[in-house]
Amino acid sequence: MNIGILTSGGDAPGLNAVIRGAVRKGIREHGFIFTGIRDGWRGLLEDDMYPLNEVDVRGLSGRGGTILGTSRTHPYSDGGPEQMKKVMAERGLDAIIAIGGEGTLSGAARLANDEGMPVVGVPKTIDNDLDNTDYTFGFDTAAAIATESIDRIRTTADSHHRCMVIEVMGRNVGWIALHAGMAAGAHAVLLPEFPVSYDQITAWVTSAWDRGRAPIVVVAEGFVPAGLDEAVSDKGLDKHGRVRLGGIGEHLAPIIDERTGIETRSVVLGHLQRGGEPTAYDRVLATRLGMASIDIIAQQKWGWMAALSGTSITHVEMSDAVDRLNTVPQERWEEIQILLG
């Protein structure tokens, strides 16, 4: 079989480890051949691809980003499924491994279930917002980077006796803010799932200050303060019409400053959380998921994806993973309350 591999949507640490795991297992166990598809669905629509062999994936486990490139091209644009079927036939592609997040896997599920295309998936998102898998690769690295960054910011906060507001990624879910905030000992952690009033934020900051601490506030970009109708954003829309989130940190800092009298600054970690080398955990998880995608192809379970259940790798239907978000549950929010302030 000739297997095409593509990475789509936002990049994440561990993408290259997936590619390596899939290629090495496919070649060594099944004698498959592989084709690298450049820049996600765009490469499949425009026939932009190249042969991919074991030499090409040497040493990839620890490399960040993706050697294939990525884009947010929609699979139903520019000719859509019919164009992709044509390209696959001309290239002799027998199946596609789509590595991506909620948007990528939604499209991949639709292609498999509605269009009859031989597509399988591997879940990727630093937000950890995909359902039907316990964790997605990229999340552990993003949380670790955020934690290290907060640790570094704390030293300057202590030196200058300031409150620092650190904005992390998390459009719809607050897993990064929750884990990084807990790991770094933040005094306020603000998540998209749970609106919090300005009064409560002020109380947490004041409590830390009164104990002689420089208050640390960790906020997910999608957090909506109680009383507001939508997330704060000052960056307009992207080319697909989706709101570019960002700005909640700068929104909160002057409010905290005014209400408490504590000098307050904000820092946006942004794409720093996506970059660099993946953690050991993400390297192992990504490699296992990549290898599992080959098992799914060998069984011709089109429309299915590799997933993590506890410590075991399983196979689940992609449509079940994208029909709802993996949000932070109430019990995790209640758990961290005792640590705040």
UniProtKB/TrEMBL annotation:
EC number(s) given by UniProt: 2.7.1.11
Cofactor: Mg(2+)
Enzyme class at the top of the EC tree: transferase
Reactions that this protein is recorded to catalyse: beta-D-fructose 6-phosphate + ATP = beta-D-fructose 1,6-bisphosphate + ADP + H(+)
PANTHER family xref list: ATP-DEPENDENT 6-PHOSPHOFRUCTOKINASE 3 (PTHR13697:SF52), PHOSPHOFRUCTOKINASE (PTHR13697)
Family: Belongs to the phosphofructokinase type A (PFKA) family. Mixed-substrate PFK group III subfamily.
The protein's name in its UniProt record: ATP-dependent 6-phosphofructokinase
Protein's organism: Brevibacterium samyangense
Gene that specifies this protein: pfkA
